[in-house]
Amino acid sequence: RFRVLGQYAAVYVTRGQGEFHSPSTGVVPVRAGEAMLLFPREPHHYGSRAGWQTQWIVWNGPDAERLEALGYLGPQTAVVPDPLGAVEEAFTALAGIMAREDLAAVLERKTLVLTMLLRLHQSSRSIGRRPGADQLMRQAVAYLAREYASQIPVDELARRFKLSPTHFRRLFKE
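User: That's the sequence. What structure does it adopt?
Assistant: Structure tokens below.
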């Protein structure tokens, strides 16, 4: 059964696997090392039949809404790989300062959440990339290192790796 949380949340799966379901995504498998992003107005359901362990971070406010409006977050990308453990790292750091209410702690909490969201956004951008893109770019860097004395135009590099110049630039920048 779907539910609406009413605020933003990152649910990090530390152990086990399950499924996430929303109208925007349909059913998406979720494994350890991935984060589910929940949105205030987006109905969702998730769970595990075999059991799992999760960590939660919840936030709200106008900054969160602005980030969503700007496209850093979105219900269409609700399950995000978290290979660097951004949610787990933020969860651990937040646990140490949640009881404090001084101005520094408020700013620390906000900084931790924003850093986590940036890292998740960067990770989510890699979801739609062509398989092997990272390997292809490693090959391009190795080629450039071998040919460092040559001035190789981007068009020539792109052609060498069977990509359009625009796509090559985007992958290389990422």
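The first helix runs from residue 62 to 70.
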